[in-house]
Amino acid sequence: MPSEELNLAAFAVCLTCGHLRDGAPREQRCRCQPRTPEWEQQWQGQDISSDLDLCLLCVRDTVTTRTRWSWLACETCRHVSQVVGERYGHRAALPLGRHSIMNGDVVQPHTATATKVAASLVASVRRGNELRDWQQVEFDRLAEPLRPGGPTVPLAEWQRRCPPSLGASVDAFDRYGVMPVPNDLSTLRQAQTEFLSTAR
Fold it and tell me: Are 80 and 181 in contact (CB under 8 A)?
């Protein structure tokens, strides 16, 4: 993993595709921009040709994206997913890791059959696709008021307009709707109540 410090002030949010672009020390390109051999050269040695992206769930905070073992969601959204999942007697409620092993999608060797392996892979891909569909819907909701101003907005401005918080993570988790946040998780619920009152 590169040791360079990322210059967050150099990143911009593409208001079309919802991914980060520009950046430093490497130039990052969003999905709307062309990929060239010269551009790809700078990413040799990294699993992922980007350093940073927006959280898959709240689309407000950022996550580092350099390896196939990187998280797709910010620390706060992962916390909400873990707390809620444990309350229902499961592991984390949402598959927020880039690699299936991070999400517990492991078939034990002594019970593995071709059918079980295939079913596990299909379920993992389906859940990941559902989350990516959600990310686009949530991004469009937040980006719509900013689009008249141009094709991109600085990351700092995006986070000023859409600040990450525990309340925002709970709100996004609730609206995603895979399972409700129990009312007795008072810390999470209080954070969401405070977030909603300030967002109005």
Answer: yes
Distance CA 164, CA 79 (A): 13
Q: What is the C-alpha to C-alpha distance for residues 200 and 85, in angstroms, rounded to an integer? A: 29
For the chain, what is the domain count? Answer: 1
- Residues 107 and 140 sit within 8 Å (Cβ to Cβ): no
What is the domain range of residue 130?
A: 8-199
Contacts of 108 (CB under 8 A, 6+ apart): none
Grade residue 67 by pLDDT with cuts at 50, 70 and 90.
confident
pLDDT in tens, 4-37: 688 999 999 999 999 999 988 899 999 999 999 9
Q: pTM for the complete prediction?
A: 0.85
**DSSP code, position 169:** H
For strands 62-64 and 52-54, give the pairing. Answer: antiparallel
* In-domain check, residue 1: no
